[in-house]
Specification:
Strand order of the largest sheet: 4-3-2-1-11-12
CATH topology of the largest domain: Purple Acid Phosphatase, chain A, domain 2
Largest sheet: 6 strands, mixed
Radius of gyration: 25 Å
Bound molecules: manganese (II) ion
Distance between the termini: 76 Å
Order of helices and strands: EHHEHEEEEEHEEEEEEHEHHEHHHHHH
Strand content: 15-25%
Helix content: 25-40%
Number of strands: 15
Number of domains: 3
Number of helices: 13
CATH architecture of the largest domain: 4-Layer Sandwich
Shape: elongated
CATH class of the largest domain: Alpha Beta
């Protein structure tokens, strides 16, 4: 069997927006708008530079139906680059770009082959002895295990299974085309080129089962380097599986401890230092899209709660001041706590203490809690999956989704308290 390298990518979501980055000022705006395209160009350039034998795209090439033909034209142009370099491309469609989701279509360059959706299809690369097996999604929701219908391995070939799957329901991803790792391992293929889960991971070696992750993170829950898998095969045996980065905007959580900040100026200085450190340590030359998280037992807590808009503007100004295209602040999240805890307040004999005791009791009032759960509960059920999956740990929305009315009431406490105890400027 041959020696060659190939590139395995997935979840390109071409032309989908990066969430939370609207309102960007300056030269980085264009970079953010075109990030998924630029990341794809980086990947294609890398495939050509590395001289890969072929490229596999394991689903969700498109984010959904094209707004116009430009998305398809861009893809064709990139495929043309690979065609010139003599590199074939094998494309499988997933839940986002399932047959039923895409109404527009363009004829593709001759080096591109698309896996059919009615049954598994096999493509052979006879010169290097490779067989690729795959089945595209016909519709968005594939709830059956597709693996049993995939054909057995072609004897004497290097067999690759291409599949878009939630596997067993991993990390907030809808469990489409579910299957077990054991199903894949038992199939007799050498490599499973998976897609759908947006995080690079090698789930099994010999045979290899790999998620390459997406090419470009699209929101704060997709932080860090993103890219594709570059796979080396020597005499039919897999050698290295390397992650190559293709992201042009990198998402990053920036925690800022405010325990020692005693003035607004010192708060801003802490934010500046944290942003500088993140750019130096994590950006690797990319534009860093940051979520600043203010935390700690902060003397400035009461002054900061409710000042999110101001803090966001200041944090963005600081980021822009670091230099051109270095950092952008998506959001400033308030997670500080007051130096005095709730118990101290509740013990006070004044009106504030009374409010605190009242709110404490509200959390134990079954009638109030039941009432809180009813109407919003119905509304929450209608939220799209993406919104529900987006609800962060510890957020008010997450508490509401989990029917945790007690946490909802508790979330009101620190806000009211800090508003009522904030000193006037
Ligand atoms: Mn998917």
């Amino acid at each position: 069997m041959g020696s060659f390298r190939f590139l395995h990518a997935a979840d390109i979501h071409l032309d989908s927006p990066l969430r939370g980055l609207t309102g960007q000022e300056g030269s980085a705006a264009e970079r953010i708008r075109s990030a998924t395209r630029e990341a794809f160009e980086v990947m294609v350039g890398r495939a050509i530079a590395e001289g890969v034998a072929f490229v596999v795209i394991a689903g969700d090439l498109y984010d959904g139906d094209w707004r116009d033909y430009r998305t398809g034209l861009f893809f064709s142009a990139q495929m043309g680059r690979l065609k010139e370099a003599g590199i074939p491309v094998f494309v499988l469609h997933g839940n986002h770009d399932a047959q039923s989701q895409i109404t527009r279509k363009l004829d593709l360059p001759g080096n591109v082959r698309v896996f059919g959706a009615r049954a598994p299809e096999t493509f052979l690369l006879e010169d290097i002895g490779v067989a690729l097996h795959g089945q595209s999604f016909s519709q968005r929701e594939i709830r059956d295990n597709l693996v049993p219908a995939y054909p057995g391995p072609v004897v004497g070939a290097f067999n690759i299974g291409v599949l878009h799957t939630g596997l067993g329901g991993m990390g907030g991803h809808e469990n489409y085309a579910p299957c077990a790792l054991a199903d894949l391992v038992a199939k007799g293929y050498a490599y499973w080129a998976l897609g759908h889960v947006h995080q690079f991971q090698i789930l099994h070696r010999r045979p290899h089962v790999v998620f390459p992750g997406n090419l470009q993170g699209r929101h704060i829950r997709e932080p860090g380097a993103k890219g594709a898998a570059l796979v080396s095969v020597q005499d039919g045996e897999i050698g290295e599986v390397a992650m190559i980065s293709s992201d042009v905007v990198r998402w990053c959580l920036v925690p800022v401890a405010l325990d020692a900040a005693a003035s607004v100026a010192e708060v801003l200085e802490c934010i500046r230092a944290a942003l500088e450190e993140s750019v130096a340590g994590q950006a690797e030359g990319r534009l860093l899209a940051c979520r600043v998280v203010l935390q700690g037992r902060a003397p400035m807590h009461a002054r900061l709660v409710g000042a999110e808009e101001y803090l966001l503007a200041e944090a963005r100004a600081i980021a822009l001041g670091l230099g051109a295209d270095l950092a952008w602040v998506e959001r400033v999240k308030m997670a500080t706590q007051p130096v005095d805890d709730v118990g101290v307040l509740a013990a006070r004999s004044d009106a504030l203490g009374e409010l605190q005791r009242m709110l404490n009791e509200a959390g134990g009032d079954p009638d109030l809690l039941a009432q809180l759960g009813e109407d919003p509960g119905q509304m929450l059920l209608r939220l799209p999956h993406e919104v529900r999956a987006d609800a962060e740990e510890g957020s008010v929305l997450r508490a509401a989704l989990e029917g945790n009315q007690q946490a909802l009431v508790a979330s009101v406490l620190p806000y009211l308290t800090s508003r009522l105890t904030a000193e006037e400027d």
